[in-house]
Structure formats: structure tokens, C-alpha cells
Design goal:
Blueprint (H helix, E strand, L loop, with lengths): L9 H7 L6 E2 H12 L3 H5 L9 H16 L2 E3 L4 E4 L1 H9 L5 H4 L3 H10 L20 H26 L2 H16 L3 H4 E3 L10 E4 L7 E7 L7 H13 L4 E6 L5 H9 L5 E5 L1 H11 L16 H4 L5
Parallel strand pairs: 6-7, 7-8
Antiparallel strand pairs: 1-3, 2-3, 4-5, 5-6
Helix pairs in contact: 1-2, 2-4, 4-7, 8-13, 11-12
């Protein structure tokens, strides 16, 4: 079955509460999910943040919408039950959708105040007007789309810089990742005779666990022979950990080789997109445009004994 949209779950939520008793959010989910015939992959599908499954999020927002319409009511911390109006609607057999909920003043006021979940049948419409998405999904999808645009812009900037600036970029990123002054935690060789090693990251002050770095600003994919040379350089240094960073990508053969080398040698391949993602994560070459703080209820404050 295709993943249901949040509004397609209205009827399921009402059915889960049809006995008129108080139910927890978990009980509602456990009642609904078996009836959806979703695959294991669909059940495990998470929001972009990874903090909640998509189906749980949609069931939660379906319940919230029904509460706003007066068909369901809160009955304590994390609990709810169907109202007399909800039972009336359920027993009438009419389809419960957004149009039906818009017939209730309380839901229309909620919609007008929140400005979310506007209906749209256009599959190519903007996420903010897609009625199949919950507010959480709209927000997280928008952030993901914006980051994808930034990744493309970063790759364009990297493509236009010279190799020496690329090496500086890698150094700046490593400083952010490992903290402190890069010169205290690592050294950059970048000289002939270095056997293809551009830098050494000292993960501890005594140098027991070093990471050797190779940085290449290329337009073509890095091939297997280049990775083999790097693996040989690591062996020549008696090293076990290496990071190969490129502005382009790696050939299939190069990636397969990394998966087959000795278990004593661990090489991480970082391509242009991975590099851009790390730059965004650690704030290298990017700056904050707008910071939005999303609040949530502090349940410990209201329910200190619920532990």
C-alpha cells in the first residue's frame, strides 16, 4: 500500500477511538498501522531529521486535526478519546477529509491562524502548499531542498577555485571537525616525496592514532590506481587509517577496491557532494542566513512525575 497522507488517516484515527474509551498515542498507532498493510521499509521510513517515522508523524497530525475540529478531545497527558460529534460523523459513514473538517469553525480558525496544509492537487506544487505533507514534513523537506541548492552552489565555487585554495579548504574543514588549531592536531605535508600524503591528523597528542589525508581537486572521477597508490602510501607509513578527499567523484572500480583491501587498512572516500555536506555541517564556506527556533512542549515541566 502507498504511504497514506495525513488527511487519509482521519477515518483510521476515529475508528481506533470508536469504543469511546481513552487511548494513548501508542495504542492509536498500534491499532491503525496493521490495517495499512505497509511494507517494513515504509514503516521504518523516517523524516529527513531521522527523529520520527513518517507514518507516526502523519498519524499524530491526523489526530491533531481531528482535535482542532472537535471530533476528538484530549483526555490527559498523551491521551485522547472520541467526542460525541466524532462518533456521529463516524457512524454516518461519510468520508472524513479536509473538506469535511473545514465545515467546523474551530478547524477553519486553526487553518487560518496556522496557514498550513493548504490543499493542492498539483503534484509538482511547492512543498508548502502540498496537502499530503504535515507541517513537520514541510519544514524538514524545505530545509533539505535548500541544502541541496547550497550543495550545488558550493560545488560550483569549488570548481572555480585553484588547487592550493582547495587544500586550504580541506585544512579549514579538518580544523572544524577535529577542533582547535589544526597545526596542533595535524600537519600538512604537500611536498614532493610525500608518497601522496597531503596531511596527517593526530587524533591524540601522542600520535597513536593518526589519519593520513590525500586531497585532490579534480574534474574527472578518481580511478582505482590512484586509490591503490594512496593505500600503498599508507602502508609505507605503517598507517591504518586514510581519508581521500576529492572535488569530483570516484569510479566504481575505486569504490570496489576500498571495500576489498585488507581489514588492517581503512580508507574513507569523500567525494565533492560529501565534502559540501561536511562544509555545511561544520560551517566552512557558508554562513547563517536565517535562524529559526522551533519550540516543543516541555513535558517534564508539566508532568514531572511521568518518568
Amino acid at each position: 500500500m502507498v504511504m497514506p497522507t495525513y488527511d487519509e488517516l482521519f477515518g483510521h484515527v476515529l475508528n481506533a477511538l470508536s469504543d469511546g474509551k481513552v487511548h494513548t498515542a501508542i495504542e492509536i498507532r498500534e491499532s491503525i498501522i496493521p490495517r495499512l498493510n505497509l511494507s517494513q521499509a515504509e514503516l521504518e521510513e523516517a523524516l529527513p531529521s531521522g527523529r520520527q517515522t513518517r507514518i507516526s508523524n502523519r498519524i499524530g497530525w491526523a489526530k491533531t486535526s481531528l482535535i482542532k475540529a472537535g471530533l476528538v478531545e484530549k483526555a490527559g497527558y498523551g491521551k485522547s478519546r472520541i467526542t460525541a460529534e466524532g462518533l456521529k460523523v463516524l457512524r454516518s459513514g461519510v468520508k472524513v477529509d479536509l473538506g469535511r473538517l473545514m465545515g467546523y469553525d474551530s478547524f477553519r480558525e486553526y487553518q487560518n491562524n496556522s496557514g498550513n496544509m493548504s490543499s493542492s492537487d498539483d503534484a509538482t506544487s511547492d512543498h508548502t502548499t502540498d496537502c499530503t505533507l504535515t507541517p513537520d514534513e514541510i519544514l524538514e523537506t524545505s530545509v533539505r531542498d535548500l541544502n541541496e541548492k547550497i550543495i550545488d552552489d558550493l560545488l560550483s565555487e569549488i570548481d572555480g577555485c585553484d588547487p592550493s585554495f582547495f587544500e586550504k579548504l580541506v585544512v579549514d574543514l579538518l580544523e572544524r571537525i577535529y577542533g582547535g588549531n589544526f597545526s596542533e592536531n595535524a600537519e600538512v605535508t604537500g611536498r614532493s616525496g610525500d608518497e601522496g600524503i597531503d596531511g596527517v591528523i593526530k587524533q591524540d597528542r601522542l600520535g597513536f592514532n593518526n589519519i593520513y589525508v590525500q586531497a585532490k581537486k579534480w574534474s574527472n572521477d578518481v580511478s582505482r590506481p590512484e586509490i591503490q597508490k594512496f593505500a600503498g602510501a599508507l602502508q609505507g607509513q605503517g598507517a591504518t587509517n586514510g581519508a581521500f578527499i576529492t572535488s569530483s567523484d570516484y569510479s566504481k572500480a575505486a569504490r570496489e577496491y576500498v571495500g576489498k583491501i585488507s581489514t588492517n587498512t581503512h580508507i574513507v572516500l569523500i567525494n565533492g557532494r560529501d565534502l559540501a555536506k561536511l562544509m555545511i555541517e561544520y560551517g566552512v564556506g557558508v554562513s547563517d542566513k536565517t535562524v529559526i527556533t522551533i519550540k516543543r512542549i516541555d513535558t517534564d515541566y508539566f508532568h514531572p512525575d511521568n518518568e
